[in-house]
Amino acid sequence: MATRKAPAKAKPNVSKDDLLQYYRDMLLIRRFEEKAGQLYGMGLIGGFCHLYIGQEAVVVGLEAAAKEGDKRVTSYRDHGHMLACGMDPNGVMAELTGREGGYSKGKGGSMHMFSKEKHFYGGHGIVAAQVPIGAGLAFADKYKGNDNVTFAYFGDGAANQGQVYEAYNMAELWDLPVIFVIENNQYAMGTSTQRSTKSPSYWERGAAYGIPGEEVDGMDVLAVKAAGEKAVAHCRAGKGPYILEIKTYRYRGHSMSDPAKYRTRDEVQKMREERDAIEMVRQMLLTGEHASEDDLKAIDKDIKNIVNASAEFAKESPEPALEELWTDIYADEIPQEAV
Amino acid sequence: MATEILMPALSPTMEEGTLAKWLVKEGDSVASGDILAEIETDKATMEFEAVDEGTIGKIIVAEGTEGVKVNSPIALLLEDGESADAVTTTTEATTQEALEEAATPAPAAAQVASEEPTPVSKASPDWPEGTEMITQTVREAIRDAMSEEMRADDTVFVMGEEVAEYNGAYKVTQGMLDEFGSRRVIDTPITEHGFTGIGVGAAFGGLKPIVEFMTFNFAMQAIDQIINSAAKTLYMSGGQMGAPMVFRGPNGAAARVGAQHSQDYAAWYASIPGLKVVMPYSAADAKGLMKTAIRDPNPVIVLENEILYGKSFEVPKLDDFTIPFGKARIWREGSDVTLVSWGIGMTYALEAAERLAADGIEAEVIDLRTLRPVDYDTVLASVMKTNRCVLVEEGFPVASFSDHMASTIMQRAFDYLDAPVVTCTGKDVPMPYAANLEKLALVTTDEVIEAVRKVTYK
Where is this region: Disordered (chain B) (predicted)? Predict the structure, then answer.
């Protein structure tokens, strides 16, 4: 039942305000990630830090298709998802620096952040573990009888894990309202898709379970949004899961300590220069005369201020109190689910 | 204002590195994302990108320089119209301070109080005297506990292989599909990793799943979801969300099912902070503890036993009967030796105590009932009275739960001990199939009696 690849080239109608919002949202992620890279270089962020630069259109496009109550869960490359669903940049950056003001009070770090308020369920460090968890979140919504959907994000690397297919099977069997979003950035750490599978069209793999899917241009935020709306409509109508394989590209290494020698600099440069998602929207805004250079400069400045403020907050927030070592291991009462 | 470009840390362990090559020169304009230099870390040669735009005013550290400390200035970035001469190089004090502060060792942890309070047994009756009792198997008691909780709370549901239409591989969920329907009693495909993950997700989403494993041997396929996803999320989220759920099923050896179907996982799960671990022996405990487990806001592992399923016990006839975690039960009082066990190990401990009594040795028999939290105080209070202790379990001997308890007794009651604490466990071998070898591989009542005679010198 897999549908044919959608030729997502036709530009859907989009308002000026929406287009400006996508520009802002994508730019916030990029500048935030650049700042995170800088703070990592300064030793203020430790351990593993996986940047989302290049993939911004994926989360911004899909968030544009979501409504309040929808859930999302992803892997360890999660900063972009958190910003896109409206989490506070200060809280995210302070978690990266391991401070009290972070979303997990400094106890989770880059890979482990959550927000009940924004229905963001992590931030998971084990490749593909979030996929059945996403199906389980959708299970909970179906059980409760509401029409929320869950976005379960994972990469092309995770797409080869067995639990993904266990989740596909049960999601379709039980008609769970979950959108499996494969962010195909072409590299599982240092291994290209060509070196890890002979069936590189990941969206087609759902056909074995009866799950429809399609491939989407992930450098085009409007194409992502259009595909997201289609998938969301399918799930909300009670028709079960949907697969979106979103072709995207990560400009930086797998983590901060990855020199990325498995691809050429030309390959990266070509993507940046010819396919950059933010630049594309920028050109649309300018050529369509929806915004002037000055308007965009003002947005750039505004975003820079937000990001700089988050970095300041993340530096000034104190380290967690030593007693925090011993808290949050067990819950005393059942935390209430935000409705 | 000019910005100092600092030597970056480009790996989790990097403290200094070699500035291998500059890819820009003084006077060059750079934009965010441009590659400035190649830097050799302790792991690899990395490209170092510009974060801000501007003009390279001055290169402070020449290429080829080794041992450049992280965070020391390597170049100066000027904004439009600025001159390099007008700027003096200073170290970014705030950054340095932050780093020095980070390097300061944490204050020593609070010293353990040298004078610990004397442990007092927490054991007390679990139901009022005179309560009417009924006879039930462990199997029926577990089903009743689940059914009662499902009647009371719509968010509780049970999922697993053969739990619904087949009425349970071991008939524990018998009749539940008829009462609660397929929305709440859910047959899964044989896919432990996947359905455990779905269960964890459902718990994150506000439900209270009971995930049944046909046996805990198969939960090894799912142990990543149990430990990394269910047990750790509350901590990793700073208390925002966790997994209020139960993982249950038969654990340990059944009879003649060989090495892959006979393992006891008590020590594995008991070692994980964030999990609670229950291992009942009697039907009353199975019922009371299961109800507590379902209500508990944390992930709880309930380790049942196939051989105990069919065993009958007295169960109090009460509308709502629960047993708290972390409270041991004293099955038999005695003054000569303390026998500590849990789960099916209790059958050996109680049988040994009866036979020893015939020889005039009075054993105090304690059932831990829960391993996390565990009731240390009841054990310690008893050992301080009897001065001797033998621990009994069917699990493997290396890094067993008995080892942990023996170590605790040694550390907290050393002066009270008149003999070494002895552990009686399963043997250090995969479970054999042959009937005679299987019997030999498990702990035996004779071994428990022998251990007691050794520590009582009788």
Answer: 103-129
Does any CB of chain A come closer than 8 Å to the CB of residue B32?
A: yes
| Domain covering B3-99: architecture | Beta Barrel (2.40)
Q: B329-456 is classed in which CATH architecture? A: 3-Layer(aba) Sandwich (3.40)
Q: What is the pLDDT of residue B115?
A: 65
Which pTM was predicted? 0.90
Active site residues of B: 192, 261
From residue B128, alpha-carbon distances to B256, B308, B317 in Å are: 41, 25, 11
* Residues 341-400 of chain B whose Cβ lies under 8 A from any Cβ of chain A: none
State residue B94's pLDDT score. 45
- Residue A123: cis peptide before it, omega within 30 degrees of 0: yes
Cβ distance A163 to B197 less than 8 Å, yes or no, reads yes
Q: What DSSP state is assigned to residue A193? A: G
> Which of A277, A141, A222 lies closest to A230 in space, CA to CA?
A222
- Name the A residues in 190-249 with CB < 8 Å from any B CB: none
What is B133-316's CATH number?
3.40.50.970
Q: How many CB pairs under 8 A join A and B?
A: 216
Q: Does B183 touch chain A (CB under 8 A)?
A: yes
Name all domains of chain A by residue range, CATH numbers in brackets. 16-317 (3.40.50.970)
Q: Is the peptide bond before A7 cis (omega within 30 degrees of 0)?
A: no
Task: Calculate helix-pair angle for A221-236, A56-63, nearest 10 degrees.
Answer: 40
Evaluate the CA torsion angle B312, B313, B319, B323 in order and state its sign: negative
Q: For chain B, give the number of residues.
A: 458
Minimum-distance CB partner of A259 among B44, B49, B238? B44
As a whole number of angstroms, the distance between CA B187 and CA B197 comes to 15
Q: Once rounded to an integer, what is the mean pLDDT over residues A151-174?
A: 97
Total residue count of chain A as it appears in this document: 339
Q: How far is B370 from chain A (nearest CA, A)?
A: 16
A173–chain B Cβ distance below 8 A for any pair: yes
Q: Whole-angstrom distance between the N-terminal and C-terminal Cα of chain A?
A: 34
Q: Where are the domains of chain B?
A: 3-99, 133-316, 329-456
pLDDT along chain B (458 residues), means of 10: 85 86 92 86 82 88 91 88 61 46 43 67 90 97 98 98 97 98 98 98 98 98 98 97 98 94 97 98 98 98 97 96 96 98 98 97 98 97 98 98 98 98 98 96 98 96
Q: Which A-chain residues 73-112 have CB contacts (< 8 A) with chain B?
A: 73, 102-108, 112
Q: What is the pLDDT of residue B33?
A: 75
Q: What interface predicted TM-score (ipTM) does this complex get?
A: 0.93
Percent of chain A with pLDDT over 90: 90
Same fold across B3-99 and B133-316: no
Amino acid A110 reads S
